[in-house]
Amino acid sequence: MDQRNATAGLQTQLAQAGYVAERNLTVTMLLMESISRPLLIEGDPGTGKTEVAKALAKVRNTKLIRLQCYEGLDTYNALYEWNYQRQLLAIKRAESSGAAALDDNELFSAKYLLKRPLLEALTQPISPVLLIDEIDRADAAFEAFLLELLSDYQVSIPEMGTITAQTIPFVVLTSNGTRDLSDALRRRCLYHFLDYPSFEKELAIVQTRLPSLSRKLAGQIVEFAQSLRRFDLKKKPGIAETLDWAAALLGMGISTLDDAGAEQIVDSLATLLKTREDVLAMDHTTISRLVAAAG
Fold first, then answer.
1. CB 80, CB 117: distance < 8 Å
2. Domain, as residue range, for 265
3. Entry pTM
4. 39: nearest Cα among 152, 177, 194, 201
């Protein structure tokens, strides 16, 4: 299959999985698979970065393994832990039965190993999708630890030695840009910046996820959400918030924004506005103006 057909085929599969992808992202995903390189996706919160990994797992009919990064994340939470309770019980059983004491090779064997996301991803018989979500929230030390895994798809466990991947996972890293990532990490990854969607793309997403929504209301919802993002808000609404608002309006029985009362619109904005400052910034006059513009 040539590149053009492969790209079109993957775009169609992603759309069927509920993800609307532009051609450049689709091409990058194909490259990620063909040369076994991780994909780093940067962008503002709410632009759909995490959904890329979820959709890829659906398309490839494989397991999605997610590592949610946070400040203070260490290797024991990300890679493995020893099941100390089981080890202690095994020692006590051996002592009570009069059997020979367990040596380190027995105590630190695979049956006492608790796999965390990274090790789980390396030991799958079928290549999984490994999502390392919000890598920018982890510190530089953890990022450095990832380099061996992303370079050679192997990790070192002191008690067991080096464990090499059974199958190469499809690795997707996401970043909101809260801190600069190292050049070493970037060099190991393919790169894609995911911006807020165009009107046409967001409309396609809304219609794909909520097919019962009328074309007019879907267009008004997207126009309103895109207008909100042009304001200096503390938390701009992402695609997920647009979908939540659309579902809320659908549930309220609203067929068009023109027919909805101002009070109904205000009540529903809890799905779009997520801070007190942003709620206060959207007074009735501003909301009425945005509704009129969306009509």
1. no
2. 199-294
3. 0.88
4. 194
The structural domain count of the chain equals 3
Helix extents (H) in 131-251: 140-152, 183-187, 199-209, 215-229, 239-251
Q: What is the pLDDT of residue 126?
A: 96
Burial of 242: CB neighbours in 10 Å, binned 0-12, 13-18, 19+:
buried
Of 193, 228, 259, the last residue of a domain is 193
Beta bridge partners of 174: 41
139, 167, 193 - which closes a domain: 193
Q: Which two tokens stand for residue 100?
A: 């020979």
Are 24 and 46 members of one domain?
yes
Q: Check: CB of residue 73 under 8 Å from CB of residue 144.
A: no
Q: In what order do the strands lie in the sheet with 190-193?
A: 64-68, 129-133, 170-175, 39-42, 190-193
CA angle 187, 188, 192 (to 5 degrees): 75
Query: How many C-beta atoms lie closer than 10 Å to residue 105's C-beta?
Result: 9
**What's the CA gap between 233 and 186, in Å, rounded?**
30
Can you tell me the distance from the alpha carbon of 265 to that of 256, in angstroms, rounded to the nearest whole number? 11
Residues in the chain: 295
Task: Indicate if 109 and 120 belong to the same structural domain.
Answer: no
> Can you tell me the distance from the alpha carbon of 23 to that of 28, in angstroms, rounded to the nearest whole number?
9
**pLDDT tens per residue across span 252-290:** 888 888 877 777 888 888 999 999 999 998 888 888 888
